[in-house]
Amino acid sequence: MSILLGDREYFKGVGKIAYEGPESDNPLAFRWYDENQIVAGKSMKEHLRFAVAYWHTLCGTGLDPFGGPTLFYPWNEKSDAVARAKDKADAAFEFITKIGAPYYCFHDVDVVDYDDDVRTNEKRMQALTDYLAQKQKDSSVKLLWGTANLFSHHRYMNGASTNPDFQVLTHAGAQIKMALDATIALGGENYVFWGGREGYMTLLNTDMKREQEHFAQMLKLAVSYARKNGFTGKFFIEPKPCEPTKHQYDYDAATVVGFLRQFDLQDDFSLNLEVNHATLAGHTFQHELQVAADAGMLGSIDANRGDYQNGWDTDQFPNDLMEWTQAMLVILDAGGLAGGGINFDAKRRRNSTDVEDLFYAHIGGMDTVARALLIADKITQKGEYHKIRSDRYASFDSGKGASFEKGELSLEDLFSLAAEAGEPAMISGKQEYLENLINRYI
Hints:
Elements: E1 18-19, E2 29-30, E3 38-39, E4 42-43, H1 44-48, E5 50-53, H2 54-59, H3 81-99, E6 103-107, H4 108-111, H5 118-139, E7 142-147, H6 166-185, E8 190-194, E9 199-200, H7 208-228, E10 234-238, E11 247-248, H8 253-262, E12 269-274, H9 275-280, H10 285-294, E13 298-302, H11 321-333, E14 342-343, H12 355-382, H13 384-392, H14 399-405, H15 411-421, H16 431-441
Parallel strand pairs: 1-2, 5-6, 5-14, 6-7, 7-8, 8-10, 10-12, 12-13, 13-14
Antiparallel strand pairs: 3-4, 9-11
Helix pairs in contact: 3-5, 5-6, 6-7, 10-11, 11-12
EC number: 5.3.1.5
Keywords: Carbohydrate metabolism, Cytoplasm, Isomerase, Magnesium, Metal-binding, Xylose metabolism
Catalytic activity: alpha-D-xylose = alpha-D-xylulofuranose
């Protein structure tokens, strides 16, 4: 058995997933994702930078608030934490190479189980860092980003970097240091902060101003440490409005942009945006992408979807072509993702228990995103979509409208212009036409 597969093959009966084209009926093949196809000057592989998420793919057990695990893995059989983690890494890289993703990403505790002793955890992570480095070398798979899980352990019930107890905050710092060490050693291109419990359940016992200042200070310490140790990539913050806390400080893209600017962190940080989190914040995914792009902070994506009838973070695999086409139009206009990629922060359903189901889920997600890229590129090439939008603002391209944008008019000038011109004509926004236009290409 090769080093890449380890001592056993975990996904028997499934070979390397190949591109077979739109006419293929093979459920274990790509119909739209052809990594070498050139779209808008780059290959699909370069545009999309797909990453397999360690947590849901290798660690997700199918449990929910009303029932226990339904997914059981052969790589979890050994009692020793490091040996068990190495088996998981074998399974991870077998899956990643078979699905053909160029990247992966992880939380620290997904890679290897931690206990309550910081130094023991450091030794475990160092052992797995060495093991993953060899896996990366053998497979050419790269680390898109690493992060620390600062929300699952009971010590973080009141937050991590925003915890009112300084001793808890020190443990958060220790985990961030270890996760950064692993990310740097593995050549990780980015590092992510998700403030899973950085927020409050009630303001009655919360000093919100102080907590956000503590969060900013922790981010500054992380940047300083990482830069000092050779990390040149981007830091990402992932917005989410609520769940598990009532209100999380990284509520949505606009909130995070404001926070980063307030604490002078905008040069080192961009945003990692999740579809399901946009839904929970009452926004479309397109809206969140546009906010980040307009601020110059569009970094990376967690690809999934929510259930509009359910109202919580269901993390299903993406399959909505309209949603993703609109997203790709924003991404293409922004010049692509700045350093990040598209990871599948998505889990198969708890009753999808066959080995093949994990492949079907990723194939479907990758094909959806790839097809949306192709559609968005065709729409862009035709030019009608952008022309309708630009024509809508044409009155600001010359004359007094251009003077206003340059700051050359006063409020008195606007009054005089309005009085002279009288009531303006009504101009259609053509919303339905544009929606039909996108559907026409789909």
